Amino acid sequence: MRNAAVWRQAPAIVAVRAAVLAVLTLLVCSGLALAAGGTVTGKVDATPAKFLEETVVYLKEVPGTYAPKTIGLDQKAKTFLPHVLAVTAGDTVTFLNHDTIAHNVYSPDNETYNLGNFKPEEARTYTYKTAGVYTQLCSLHPEMLAFVFVGQNPYSAVVDKEGHFTIKDVPAGSYTVAVWNSHLKTADKKVAVVGGQTAEVSFSLHR
Ligand SMILES: [Cu+2]
User: Fold this and answer.
1) Both 122 and 187 in a single domain?
2) By CB distance 3.0 to 4.6 Å, which of 13, 157, 173, 206 could disulfide with 165?
């Protein structure tokens, strides 16, 4: 008789165990979503539109320390590639001359640097200490121009051709979203970021 009672209880125990497991899984998953942060996305319009490509959307003052990265900015066909590069203070940029002629790398802005003249296939690096926008120039070719946006934090994005941007893995919190453009302006906006969710912010740039 005792054995029969145990068999009758067994399905109930299994059901309780499954329910507990489901609740735990839910808690762990929502915890991971919070840890993974949220996304800030949107679109920037520019008047005149020709300046749209020189646009970086970024979050101002996000507390934290960020592991330094190394990112490339090449010179090819007398052009800096990419035209706009967004990095974080402490990051290193590797400049590589992909051309068959010499190039120079310098910036007159913020902490200023001049890496000298590079032979073809030569690479030199520069580590940015101070946040700000650095006009990237070549003293040998006045037509060569790029911009290195150095943020206080990694939560920045260069817009695509249509003005869309996406900033991922943002810690939950309230932030100010700002836009840098080479010629145009727009007011900052506030955004509330929730883990696992996407917040949309759009901007209109003008003179
Ligand atoms: Cu050059």
Assistant:
1) no
2) 157
pLDDT in tens, 153-200: 999 999 999 999 999 999 999 999 999 999 999 999 999 999 999 999
pLDDT higher than 80, residue 78: yes
Cα of 150 vs centre of ligand 1, distance in Å, is 22
If one counts the domains in the chain, the total is 3
Q: How far is the CA of 77 from the centre of ligand 1 (A)?
A: 9
Residue 116 CA, ligand 1 centroid: distance in Å: 11
Domain boundary among 122, 152, 182: 152
Q: Which helix (H) or strand (E) holds 60?
A: strand 55-60
Cα(81) to centroid(ligand 1), Å: 12
